[in-house]
């Protein structure tokens, strides 16, 4: 029995073999969110017995855990849902806990299973119909709706590469496929390193905090900028594609804008809501292990009260001007939708009234981001380090998820979209659409200017990332991270989003205009496109999948760079596999249905690949442009 215990702090022992013993049971003593002591103890021992044991044996090895718990509390990593400081360590018996809480599906889980069964049935029936129905029956409206769920048809679209489409000259926008894939990989790597101090059980908990200050972890805390890349992509595509559509039908610009809003909501929301509801109602049933306890308390705890805020894309403000924790990564979608709502207004004024309005809007948005970032940092005394105790939850709630702080990369993306459209307009028609945009594009014809711009962008991004090493490397004896002055911290918060957006613009604008062809060819390689098409769902589900795997661990994890990289690769592959059925059964059918609804009554156009083709018309593209962002 004793050999199945975790002899040292955070050693998980042998969960499976301990529970096989008739006279023993596995017990977890939770000292902090990721600090536990595990025993395989006599079955007759109760939770109060273990509480008493800890109270009367302060000098035993368990004593060392209290120092770690205190350190976690100082670093703001202790769970808000576990008030261990006042109530003492929490004693749980995982097998009994899981039998009591997760053995039987509740009603909402049964509804979710029924819904997935219906979707699966539609996919099977549609796939059979695709092969055996005659063409005349396939043209019936109800059959067209059913065939939206056809697995062979959707799989063919998903696997079609740009080289197979052969829709003319290769578009430089295809470089965005690689940007999206590399960015989501960066997001996952950052989450592996940062959430290691909140979710999994780490055997080297004492040294893990010290290791985060080493140089190899610079890219981990630089991963926060990957989402800014998505914002930049979003702004770029919004401006470029929306201008194309408005210029095609200049008299119908109000209807075009209204239709863009409707399309956007219908295109994103179904798969978004599916992922939210699935993990909210099913996550607790999907894992098993010694640490698979308190799942509802740790993950998606806000969904019961605030799920509707995700549906209306205000979850980054509700409740109390903070942020809902329902599907943790969804704050990005709220910001992106809020930016999208404002964009058509700005772009219509840019197109219809005066080109200067667009540039003033970009400038104003950047100034807003700079001022807001600095003001939030000053008001809440924010520190650059993620682990600084002074940040508390304020850094996330009042700075990280707020659109007025995050808007500069999106605004600079809009500017790049305006430049790209003006450049291509001049190439096609020989007319100057926007003098400012044309001037910038013309300036980049000079090899020294574009090379200087490219390397300036690289240098700027690297400065933003590597300069943070200074504060992480000097946490101080009390882990307060006061190596930087307060003014330096505030200035960094003010300028970092604008600086990163400017750096990304300087790097990718020359590529979008057709320069640096070898690099553009590499980024446009067709192999990127498949994963890029899964990108949105990968983003939606990756953190929830990581939570399930981490909480299901049977053995402990050693926190080091090798393990972090290995887990990043494993998570990336596994999450991509998990995303595939969601894309094929939920996202693509919803997109097909939306397209079918809005295609009725309109003249039939020449067939194009209906998903992910760069040269499509805007109304197909503007609804899927999130795929370029996430």
Characteristics of this structure?
disordered C terminus; 3 domains; globular; 3 strands; mainly alpha; three-stranded antiparallel beta sheet; 630 residues; 30 helices
What can be said about this structure in brief?
With 630 residues, this protein is mostly helical.
Identify the overall geometry.
globular
| Fraction of residues in helix | 55-70%
Counting DSSP H or I runs of 4 or more residues, the number of helices is 30
Multimeric state: single chain
What value does the Rg take, in angstroms?
26 Å
Q: What is the number of domains?
A: 3
Largest sheet: 3 strands, antiparallel
The strands making up the biggest β-sheet line up spatially as 2-1-3
- Overall pLDDT, averaged? 87
Verbal overview:
This protein is mainly alpha-helical. The chain has three domains: 2-101, no CATH class; 107-157, no CATH class; 158-629, no CATH class. The protein contains 30 helices and three strands. It has helices at residues 15-20, 47-56, 64-74, 84-87, 94-101, 107-132, 135-138, 141-147, 151-159, 162-165, 175-194, 205-211, 218-222, 226-248, 253-282, 295-298, 303-311, 331-352, 355-380, 394-400, 403-429, 435-443, 447-466, 469-472, 486-512, 517-523, 527-551, 561-599, 618-621, 626-629, and strands spanning 24-32, 35-42, 90-92. The chain has a three-stranded antiparallel sheet. A hairpin with a 2-residue loop joins strand 1 (24-32) and strand 2. Helix 11 packs parallel to helix 27, helix 21 (403-429) runs parallel beside helix 25 (486-512) and helix 27 packs across helix 28 (561-599). The two termini are 49 Å apart.
């Amino acid at each position: 029995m004793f050999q199945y215990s975790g002899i040292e702090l955070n050693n998980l022992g042998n969960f499976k073999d301990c529970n096989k013993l008739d006279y023993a049971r596995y017990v977890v003593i939770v000292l902090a969110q990721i600090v536990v002591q595990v025993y395989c103890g006599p079955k007759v021992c109760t939770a109060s017995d273990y509480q008493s044991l800890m109270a009367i044996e302060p000098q035993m090895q368990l004593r060392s855990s209290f120092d770690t718990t205190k350190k976690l509390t100082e670093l703001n990593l202790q769970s808000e849902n576990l008030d261990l400081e006042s109530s003492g360590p929490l004693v749980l018996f995982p097998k009994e806990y899981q039998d009591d809480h997760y053995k039987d599906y509740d009603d909402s889980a049964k509804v979710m299973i029924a819904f997935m069964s219906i979707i699966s049935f539609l996919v099977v029936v549609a796939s059979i119909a695709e092969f055996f129905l005659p063409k005349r029956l396939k043209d019936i409206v109800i059959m067209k709706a059913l065939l939206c769920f056809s697995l062979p048809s959707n799989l063919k679209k998903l696997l079609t590469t740009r080289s197979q489409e052969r829709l003319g000259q290769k578009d430089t926008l295809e470089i965005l496929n690689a940007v999206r894939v590399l960015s989501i990989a960066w997001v996952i790597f950052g989450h592996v390193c940062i959430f290691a101090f909140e979710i999994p059980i780490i055997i080297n908990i004492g040294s893990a905090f010290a290791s985060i200050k080493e140089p190899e972890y610079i890219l981990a805390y630089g991963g926060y900028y990957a989402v800014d890349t998505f914002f930049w992509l979003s702004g770029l595509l919004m401006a470029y594609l929306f201008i194309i559509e408005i210029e095609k039908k200049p008299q119908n610009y109000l209807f075009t804008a209204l239709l863009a809003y409707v399309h956007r909501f219908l295109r994103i929301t179904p798969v978004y809501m599916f992922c939210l509801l699935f993990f909210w109602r099913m996550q607790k049933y999907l894992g098993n292990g010694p640490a698979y306890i308190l799942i509802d308390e740790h993950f998606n705890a806000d969904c019961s009260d605030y799920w509707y805020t995700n549906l209306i894309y205000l979850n980054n403000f509700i409740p109390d001007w903070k942020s809902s924790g329902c599907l943790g990564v969804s704050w990005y979608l709220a910001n992106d939708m809020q930016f999208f709502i404002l964009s058509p207004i700005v772009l219509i004024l840019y197109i219809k009234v005066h080109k200067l309005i667009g540039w003033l809007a970009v400038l104003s948005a950047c100034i807003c981001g700079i001022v807001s970032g600095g003001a939030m940092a000053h008001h809440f005394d924010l520190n650059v380090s993620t682990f600084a105790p002074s940040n508390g939850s304020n850094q996330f709630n009042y700075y990280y998820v707020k659109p007025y702080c995050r808007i500069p990369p999106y605004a600079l993306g809009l500017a790049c979209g305006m430049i790209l459209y003006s450049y291509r307009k001049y190439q096609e028609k020989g007319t100057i659409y926007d003098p400012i945009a044309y001037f910038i594009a013309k300036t980049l014809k000079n090899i020294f200017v574009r090379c200087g711009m490219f390397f300036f962008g690289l240098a700027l991004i690297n400065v933003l990332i590597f300069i943070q090493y200074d504060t992480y490397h000097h946490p101080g004896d009390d882990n307060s991270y006061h190596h930087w002055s307060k003014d330096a911290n505030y200035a960094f918060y003010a300028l970092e989003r604008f600086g990163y957006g400017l750096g990304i613009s300087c790097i990718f604008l020359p590529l979008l205009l057709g320069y640096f062809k070898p690099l553009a060819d590499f980024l446009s390689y067709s192999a990127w496109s498949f994963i890029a098409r899964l990108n949105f769902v990968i983003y939606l589900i990756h953190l929830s999948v990581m939570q399930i795997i981490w909480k299901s661990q049977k053995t402990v994890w050693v926190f080091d760079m090798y393990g972090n990289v290995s887990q990043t690769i494993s998570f990336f592959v596994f999450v991509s596999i998990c995303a595939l059925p969601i894309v094929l059964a939920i996202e693509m059918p919803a997109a097909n249905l939306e397209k079918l609804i809005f295609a009725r009554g309109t003249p039939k156009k020449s067939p194009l690949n209906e998903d992910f083709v760069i040269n499509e018309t805007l109304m197909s593209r503007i609804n899927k442009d999130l795929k370029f962002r996430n």
